[in-house]
Specification:
- By secondary structure, this protein is of the alpha/beta class.
- It is built from 6 helices and 7 strands.
- The protein has helices at residues 19-29, 51-61, 93-110, 136-153, 174-177, 189-201, and strands at residues 10-14, 33-38, 44-45, 64-69, 114-123, 161-167, 208-211.
- The protein has a 7-stranded parallel β-sheet, sandwiched between helices.
- Helix 3 links the parallel strand 4 (64-69) and strand 5 (114-123).
- The protein is globular.
- The mean pLDDT is 97.
- Bound molecules: NADP nicotinamide-adenine-dinucleotide phosphate.
- The site of NADP nicotinamide-adenine-dinucleotide phosphate has 28 residues, from helix 1 and helix 3.
Length: 212
């Protein structure tokens, strides 16, 4: 579906019950039908780290105009505590299998469920640009997601689009994570949600929307 101001889209939102996801649902939900998905909540249940659950939930969702992901976990650990290890045992395993490959697999699986011109919107974060202590996994995964989105955008068929939203620390998350982000300018989740609206309701592809 080509974006048009009057079209009511069917949007599949993974992580809809989270801090960021609730703001995205509030922004897009006034104009579109949101199918909520999460690991323990939502209309449809899935686990980003299990591709079979992604395929099953998308199949249940039916034809979609947009797939948005505001989920994805990484582990925070000081570099001094991280040692060489295989993919299964590494301190990086969670970020690689969950936030990175989970979102990549969601995008790959979404292709066959999206209408022509439909969109995929993934989530990275400011640590792609601005490192913090204990954040090497997040920085690596966020940069990898940016590379994937730029490359996938030029190969997607049928006018399908893919973009990435990279927010700063959210105001709502400061009580939990503020100590890691001293000196960063926090953004309200509602402001970050506008970037998801630009991705879903606009026409751009291969973009990284930085909300800093
Ligand atoms: N919060 C921030 O300040 C901030 C800033 C920049 C980037 N980000 C990124 O934005 C994303 C969301 O952050 P958030 O703070 O909104 O997280 P959050 O509040 O913890 O919410 C996470 C959401 O994702 C779902 N979820 C968690 N693990 C999942 C899995 N394995 N499979 C499917 N769904 C899963 C949860 O579902 P259930 O509720 O059903 O369990 C929940 O709805 C993360 O990737 C984070 O790195 C966050």
């Amino acid at each position: 579906m080509s974006a048009s101001p009057s079209v009511r889209m069917r949007i599949f939102l993974v992580g809809a019950n989270g801090t960021l996801g609730r703001a995205v649902a509030a922004e897009l939900g006034t104009r579109h039908h949101i199918l909520t998905a999460g690991r323990n909540s939502g209309d449809l249940r899935l686990d980003l780290s299990d591709p079979a659950t992604l395929r099953a939930a998308l199949a249940k969702a039916g034809r979609l105009d947009a797939v948005v992901c505001t989920a994805g976990e990484v582990a925070f650990a000081p570099l001094s505590a991280i040692h060489p290890a295989g993919i299964g045992e590494s301190a990086y395993t969670l970020g690689l299998t969950n936030k990175l490959l989970g979102q990549v697999n969601l995008a790959l699986a979404a292709r066959e469920h999206l209408a022509d011109g439909g969109s995929i919107t993934l989530t990275s974060g400011i640590l792609a640009d601005q490192p913090i202590a204990a954040g090497s996994s997040a920085s690596m995964v966020n940069c990898a997601l940016e590379g994937f989105v730029r490359a996938a955008a030029i190969e997607l068929p049928r006018g399908l689009r893919i973009n990435l939203v990279s927010p700063s620390i959210l105001v709502e998350s400061l009580p939990q994570f503020g100590a890691f982000f001293r000196g960063f300018e926090a953004v309200p989740a509602a402001r970050a949600a506008l970037a998801y609206s630009r991705s879903v309701e606009g026409l751009q592809t291969g973009q990284v929307y930085r909300v800093y």
